[in-house]
Amino acid sequence: MGFPAEKLESIYRNSMVDVKGFFNSRHPSQYRIYNLCAEDKYQYNSAHFNDNVGLFGCYDHQAPPMKLIFSFCEDMNNRKFGLEKMRKMLRLFIVKLEKEELVL
Length: 104
What we know:
alpha/beta; disordered C terminus; three-stranded parallel sheet; 104 residues; flat
């Protein structure tokens, strides 16, 4: 999913209000958001999603370092949430999409 936007960008991107409302009302405590954007412009307050956010930023058009991939896999398989809960959790991956990459 493209980065949820606020203000003017929410006209052509997913609105942060809508994304936050969807996950917090339909899937409370059963989701994890992975922000894969490294640019400062694409960081947001994780409190929007009850601090259930994994930050694994990688710059656009560049391969992530192996250490980042390993940390990402560890987080996806994290047992502190309990194995059964992690199997049922909805996962959302946030990436940067350019306007010309959006399909309406």
